[in-house]
Design a protein that fits this description.
With about 180 residues, this protein is α+β, with helices and mostly antiparallel strands. The protein is built from five helices and six strands, in the order αββαααββββα. It comes from Pelagibius litoralis.
Length: about 180
Amino acid sequence: MTQSIESGPLRNLLSHYLEARGSRRMPSRRDIDALKLGPVLPIIWVMEHEPAAGTFRYRIAGEEVNDAFGRSVTGHLLSELVAPDHFPTVTANFLRVIEEEAAMIASGPLYRCTDRMAVGQRLALPLSDDGEKAGGIVGATLRKSLVDLNAVTMQEQTLTFVSVDDLVSPDRSQAAGGLGG
C-alpha cells in the first residue's frame, strides 16, 4: 500500500519528474526544469551519490533547505551535515532510493540531525544520467511546523518506497493506487 503525498509542492515535483523522464525510467538532473518548479524551488534539493566517499553531495538546495541546516549546504557532503549517530540511517534511506530506483516518501519528524527539527513530508526521487541506472536524487522537503527535539522521535516517521516503474501522476493516482494521491 502506498502513502499519498499530502502537499501541492511535492505533488508538483512528482508531476514534473514524470513529465521530464518521458519514456525513460528516470530523468537526468539536466531534465529537471527550474522554471516549471517555481513554487517548489525553496524546498527542493539535488544530491549526487559519491560511492568512494560513502555519502552524497548536495548540488542544489533551496532557501528552506538551507534554513533547516542553518547554512548553505550546496557543495557539502551529507556526512558533513548530519550528526554521526544519525548518518547511517539517513544514508541508508537515500541509498535505497538509488539502489532500488525507488521514490521515497517520508512523513513525520524531519531534520532530526539539526536543531531545527520539524514535522512535515519529504519526497525523494532517483535521477539517472543514462535513464537506466540511478546516481543522484532530486527531492523536496516541506516542513510544516518546528517541534521540540524531546517531544518526538524518529520512530514516529513513516517511510514508503515505490519503484519508479510503479509511479503514476498525482492526477491519476487516486484511481491507480500509486504514489502521488
